[in-house]
Amino acid sequence: MVNDEGSISDLGSDFSTDSESYDYLLISFKETHDEANRLAIICNKLNKVNRVLEPKLESLEEESHKARKS
Questions:
Q1: Per 3-state DSSP, what percentage of the chain is helix, strand, and coil (rounded to 5)?
Q2: Residue 14: which residues within 8 A CB-CB, separation 6 or more?
Q3: Strand (E) or helix (H) holding 5
Q4: What span, in angstroms and rounded, lies between the C-alpha atoms of 2 and 4?
Q5: Which residues does 9 contact at the CB level (< 8 Å), separation at least 6?
Q6: Is 2 helix (H, G, I), strand (E, B) or coil?
Q7: pLDDT above 80 for 8
Q8: In angstroms, rounded to a whole number, what is the distance separating the alpha carbons of residues 46 and 40?
Q9: Who contacts 2 (Cβ-Cβ below 8 Å, separation ≥6)?
Q10: How far is residue 38 CA from its own chain's centroid?
Q11: Which residues pair with 2 in a beta bridge?
């Protein structure tokens, strides 16, 4: 590259900076991907618990409604 004085700058330093940035982005992506997978597993487990608890909740709501009428 040519700077304002017309001299050529060190291209090697630009490459190492790009490489470091790429490595940083790659590591960040992998960490984010791992975290997303972990959260997806937790979400699936909680959805299963929710499906089990929904009928129980409906049953309790019906009991409560019947008790109020009595």
A1: 85, 5, 15
A2: 1
A3: none
A4: 7
A5: 1, 2, 3
A6: strand
A7: no
A8: 10
A9: 8, 9
A10: 8
A11: 8
CA atoms of 2 and 7, how far apart (whole Å): 5
Domain range list for the chain: 1-70
pTM (2 decimals)? 0.61
Q: What is the pLDDT of residues 15-43, one digit of tens each?
A: 678 899 999 999 999 999 999 999 999 99
The DSSP bridge partners found for residue 8 are 2
Check if the beta carbon of residue 1 is closer than 8 Å to that of residue 9: yes
- Which two tokens mark 30? 């992998």
* Contact assessment for residue 41 and residue 49, using Cβ atoms and an 8 Å cutoff: no
Vertex 37 angle, CA 53 and 44, to 5° = 15
Task: Name the token pair of 21.
Answer: 């940035």
Distance CA 14, CA 38 (A): 36
